[in-house]
Amino acid sequence: MKLAHLRMLYMPFCLLVSLLVTGVAMATEPTFPRSIQTVLENTTPLKHPRNGRLPLLLWPVLGGVVEDNELQEVIIRELDQRGVSMIATWDYGKKEISLTQSLRIAAIQQKLGLPVVANANPSMYSFFNGDPKTSHVDAEGNRFFDESFGKGHKMGCAFTLDFRYAAMTEQIDYFVRAYKKEGLPLDLVWGDWEIDGPHEFNRSWEAAKRCAVCQKNIPNIETFESYQRAIRLKRAEMTRRCYTEPILSRYPKALVGNYAVYPHDGYHYWWDYFEYFVDYHPHIVDQRARYRKWFHEFALTGYTFAMPTVYPWHDTFLWYDFDDPDYRWFYNMLLVASNAGQHTDYKIPIIAFVHWHTVVVDGKPDPAVKQMSKWAYKELLWHMLLRGTDGLFMWCPAAESAEETRLVHEVYTASLEYSEWLNRGTPISFAVAKQPSPVISGLRIGNRVLVRRTDFGKTSGNPIKMEVDGKTLIIPPVADSCFVLTLQ
Question: Looking at CB atoms within 10 Å, which of 8, 202, 221, 345 has the fewest?
């Protein structure tokens, strides 16, 4: 009999034992939602406790809401045994049923002593809801929208949106009030708020310069930096007042964040799927890459955790000339992660969106683009953790969920062996070499350092000497492993 068949027979037995041990009785064998079944089949119970580490967040878990309360508790328990958190979804468009489901999930998590996690994204849309009052207005009083983000997105004037604040705040506060009323905790809330509210890229600047309202509200609108600053100040105000503050006013210790908003060095090393380059955008050049000048928005949002996006976007492979195809991915993705790690205060957790499959935006992949190897992706995740990333949030389409779940879970579970280092250690390096070469990352506690070395390019396999705060660290060529060294 094939191993896969044996596993299918073994899993129901394990589940029965789990139910008996936990005291959750069910008359028949439970039927899990397909997405949850996929997660369970591609993860294993933890060998080490989390010890204060953040739980693993997985996109497929969003499909794990069921009406049966006993089955919901089984799902939450089974996920927790693997270090994975159940996630409730706040959807104001279906507010009654969404609230009922969210409160039930939170009550179970409270009962089990688990973190209470919520996805607020559906309730963060839309400030630009198509109302003509949100449009740009030209000098003759004609209304128009910026369609450079796609005809399905009516992007208008940032300075016409104040009247939307009350409605948008209510879409979040509706859920937060209810959690508080029911005496439920709220530990982590995240959003994926992207194409809404003002954006300064694509050709939005051109639209703004035609708008009489924008001209009135943006001093020196003829310079892109002035325009970017005004837009990002307004965007930060919107998200702070309508998303962050309603949550933190009732749950001041909650972790609140949003996709792609994090501290940085002033540059953005990746392009989102809805963005494209225009030559007047201030940028620096790295081979064929164009890294845009970026505004320091994070501190103005009130967010309490940072959320960089570390994806293998299709076009980034074509930006670089490295002979090693894996290093083309690794180089860019480690730049993004290191940028966040180096510039985020150690008191602020970093939860990075991660993904392995090549992200093809237009559905037309270039045959020259080679998929990142599983080995390189897992090494990347390790180096992220050793450079300040505290938590991982895996995003993926349903068809990719099995492999994506398995890869990130393998690294997450193995990393729990080093929780003391990951909780207390200080990163020793954020350097990213301009050519394929050994990549070294580590966390220091006193004179001891947890190190990982990953070799790219042509290397001699010799030990490497590096300086850490005036002391010497000699790193041997140990592959695919973490090890502890002493500073000399």
Answer: 345
